[in-house]
Design goal:
Helix content is 44%, strand content 11%. It is built from nine helices and six strands. Helix 1 (16-30) packs across helix 4. It binds 6-O-phosphono-beta-D-glucopyranose (BG6) and magnesium ion. 6-O-phosphono-beta-D-glucopyranose is lined by residues 8-10, 19, 42-47, 50, 75, 112-116, 136, 169.
Amino acid sequence: MKAFIFDLDGVIVDTAKYHYLAWKNLAKSLGFVFTEEHNELLKGVSRVRSLEILLEIGKVQLTEEQKQPLLLKKNEEYLEYVNKMTPNEILPGISDVLDYLDANNITYALGSASKNAPLILKKVGLLNRFTAIVDGNDVSKAKPDPEVFLIGAQKLQMKPENCIVVEDAIAGIEAANAANMVSIGIGDAELLKDATYILKDTTDFTIDFLKNLMN
Ligand code: BG6
Ligand code: MG
């Protein structure tokens, strides 16, 4: 018996573009330019750590107290985009994968760093599909720490070695490896080289691939 644990951002939906717009605006208000290349560094990284990285890029030093309103402002703008999301934004192939898992009684959980995960799932109509949801509100240690996936395995009542993690971020693949789980990396093969399997995007996450994997 196997079970799946899915990352959210970059695997089920492409929210990186919305994170980028909100971070870029924040950087602009602080007087520096934040590029799409910079945004790559924030994939899979927690909100607080993302702000720290952004401030390092802009060489801006702030106290913890000064960071709080910025985190709020960024999230408010991000949520404006999230609130407009629809089921059309589920990445290609993912709905078929979930249908296949349901049809074959293979359970799956969400393992995301995002504190907005339940809202995003609701917006795209997937909130009730997951047996368990573990998100940024449930963990004390962010990826690459394996905590989020280990809690997911526990909630699915599965041994870590029987869990298959689907991830697009390096930190997520590291977390899966640290949890002793099989991993499917979705994205750049060079970046995700430590994953057990690598697919260039979700269109390669086919039912044939799944069948081979399960056998
Ligand atoms: C991850 C994203 O899934 O969630 C990161 O890849 C993001 O880019 C992190 O920073 C935290 O998200 P949120 O929604 O709690 O700000
Ligand atoms: Mg991700």
